[in-house]
Amino acid sequence: MPALVASDLDRTLIYSAAALALTMPDARAPRLLCVEVHESRPLSYMTETAARLLTDLGDAAVFVPTTTRTRKQYLRINLPGPAPTYAICANGGHLLVDGVSDPDWHAQVTARLADQCAPLAEVQEHLLRTADPVWVRKHRVADDLFAYLVVERELLHEDWVKELAAWAENLGWTVSLQGRKIYAVPKPLTKSAAMREVARRTGADLTLAAGDSLLDTDLLLAADRGWRPGHGELADTGFTAPSIRVLPQRGVLAGERILREFLEAVRGA
Length: 269
Prior knowledge:
4-stranded antiparallel β-sheet, 14 strands, alpha/beta, single chain
């Protein structure tokens, strides 16, 4: 039976220039590989060592990129190694098979959301009405499934985020602050549900996962073994569990360490 590795991407395996956390002397900094270009500019990176590890992992396990990104945002990433057969996008709202969204899975998800939580339009209206234009740069809706704001963190009132989270909780939604983005996501929209579906389809008997944010919590807890880096929302809150290993590395070197851990677990299975 194959092992399945479902990993978050941003700030887990791939990193923007601002998130690299290169604290060593310049001469000792790792060589970097650009894995995403947007509007003709390099956007996301991993170390060259991490790229080799990911290539090895793709040969040894069912590797499933697992992201809150929309399909369009995910498809501009060019990861090294074998092209993944499966990818989880929009926080589980889309299950891509060879780059194409599975319509049956998406229909199941949208039916579940309609049945279990308040509609997106209500949440979007609340965000538009209550968010201060002083610190909001963009209002966005992702694949008609959830909403997020792009903000200026220096100007953001943290109390507003807490108030939004309390308001959303009563509607069956959750709120996550990641870098310059504030996500409002329906609770039934989960990465873990999509991971379980891929495990069912592939017959995987071992599931491994990694992630750094609140939206990765369910994924980490659903996997047989999980890892989180020393940065991010989960690190800030001290989140852990018996099946989750907390790594000390921060930034792009954490991505390299996570891939080493995945490979060791797969080869030792």
